[in-house]
Write a structure and sequence with these properties.
By secondary structure, the chain is mostly helical. The chain has a single domain (12-228), classed as Methane Monooxygenase Hydroxylase, Chain G, domain 1 (Up-down Bundle). It contains 7 helices and no strands. The protein has helices at residues 8-14, 19-46, 50-78, 85-118, 124-150, 155-185, 190-228. Helix 5 packs parallel to helix 7 (190-228).
């Protein structure tokens, strides 16, 4: 039977140097790396540098694979750790939602690669919109990483970082519809319309997964605060 009967947040506090906690922090970093490379690829295309964009996509794919490996390691460690069943389930869900951020960023990156390989023409104004979206997504994922690192250390800060993630998600929603409108009215190659739409959906879904992850953390923290009263 586990010696630790506290909440998941208590577990974070006393087990910060555990294999699981190190894995969770490393996982958040690799997710951040994945999204950052997506933004770098977009910036490169704003500068008409396709080779630099393709290099960024290669690094994106590598980071996403590393994130997947860390998720598998965390799941394996959780199966044999000293955590109560409910807390183990909560952490599993958080890790899975966070991994979805990288999964969708990779999906966006793969569609971006197809746009480049198909050599379809996309207006610079549209690439700039995508670059702004991925810049905001990059910021949101960094805030999510700060949120994770604050658990068990400064839970009020975790709430603040989570709120920042939510604000970014709302901004990205507005950018999403603005960009979708531009795609609809642009004179684009049908292949470009198809790929740019899927690319847009990947960014949007990655943003939604970032918000979902922050929401789970918010619920964990608020639940703990109410228990302590």
């Amino acid at each position: 039977m586990s010696e630790n009967k506290g909440s998941l947040l208590d577990w974070f506090k006393v087990r910060r140097e555990s294999v699981i906690m190190k894995g969770v922090r490393d996982h958040a970093q690799k997710i951040g790396d994945t999204v950052s490379e997506l933004n770098r690829a977009m910036i490169a295309l704003c500068e008409s540098d396709k080779e630099r964009a393709l290099d960024a996509i290669k690094r994106l794919i590598y980071s996403e694979k590393e994130a997947d490996k860390l998720e598998e390691m965390i799941s394996e460690e959780l199966s044999k750790g000293d955590m109560e069943a409910k807390e183990r389930e909560d952490l599993m869900h958080l890790t899975q939602y966070m991994d979805n951020v990288a999964d969708w960023a990779k999906e966006a990156g793969m569609n971006l690669q197809l746009v480049i390989e198909a050599n379809v023409s996309v207006p610079l104004s549209m690439w700039r919109k995508y670059a702004e979206m991925t810049k905001e997504l990059d910021f949101a994922v960094k805030q999510l990483k700060n949120c994770v690192e604050s658990l068990g250390v400064n839970n009020e800060a975790a709430i603040t970082y989570g709120h920042s993630v939510g604000l970014s998600e709302h901004k990205l929603d507005e950018m999403y519809f603005s960009t979708k409108k531009e795609i609809l009215f642009a004179e684009l190659d049908p292949r470009a319309i198809y790929l740019m739409r899927d690319l847009l959906h990947g960014i949007e879904n990655s943003s939604d997964s970032t918000k979902d992850s922050a929401d789970i953390i918010h619920i964990l923290v608020i639940s703990q605060i109410h228990k302590a009263r």
